[in-house]
Write a structure and sequence with these properties.
Elements: H1 27-50, H2 65-87, H3 97-105, H4 108-124, H5 126-140, H6 146-166, H7 182-191
Helix pairs in contact: 1-2, 4-5, 5-6
Protein name: Tripartite tricarboxylate transporter TctB family protein
Keywords: Membrane, Transmembrane, Transmembrane helix
Organism: Maritalea mobilis
């Protein structure tokens, strides 16, 4: 919870995204934007060779559709970000490159959490891993009251029921399910 601290008539609560950074056009943001735009240009140059499009398939079934959408999005937004940098080039000398780069890297933590989750599903099973992951994320995000853990566990159960039972998504059973009694093993592999 953000608390407002009145000092000199101003509160320390950020009202805009830019307020969280030293400058909205700091060197880290500019370098990240330029590098991302250059990667998008390279990926766009490789689109015809790497992403396949076939004449006899409708657009929504083309193997390269989502790659092309992602790359076009990177080019579109990157182009406007380059324009923004161009028009605000006087703000490029702002200090704080390392601090801002660390803020950008914090997002990688959640990528690692998700990769761990995906790696554990084949070992421990979809239901226990999903509930465990949501409980862990609840704790990681700072929610400590019991009601939040109960909601996280119920959400995990609901996710598994919807995906495995209603949508019938084929997710492999966990290796731990092999140790269950024969009467329960089949049910666990199909529904948990």
């Amino acid at each position: 919870m953000i608390q407002e601290n009145e000092i000199g008539g101003k509160s320390n609560r950020a009202e805009r995204v830019e307020d969280y950074f030293v400058s909205p056009y700091s060197s880290a943001l500019v370098w990240f934007g330029v590098c991302t735009f250059l990667v998008a240009i390279f990926l766009a140059s490789q689109l015809g060779a790497q992403a396949k499009f076939f004449d006899n398939l409708p657009l929504e079934k083309q193997p390269g559709l989502w790659s092309a959408i992602g790359i076009v999005g990177m080019l579109f937004f990157g182009f406007f970000q380059m324009l923004q940098f161009w028009f605000h080039r006087n703000g490029l000398q702002a200090p704080g490159f390392v601090a801002e780069a660390l803020v950008w890297l914090k997002a990688a933590e959640y990528v690692l959490w998700f990769m761990a989750y995906v790696s554990l599903v084949p070992l421990t099973g979809y239901l226990p891993t999903t509930i465990g992951f949501l409980l862990l994320m609840t704790w990681r995000l700072g929610y400590r009251a019991g009601q939040y853990y109960l909601l996280a566990a119920l959400t995990g159960l609901l996710i598994v029921v919807v995906f495995k039972s209603f949508l019938q998504v084929k997710i492999p059973g966990g290796a731990l399910y092999e140790y269950l009694p024969a009467a329960v093993r089949g049910f666990a592999i199909l529904y948990l």
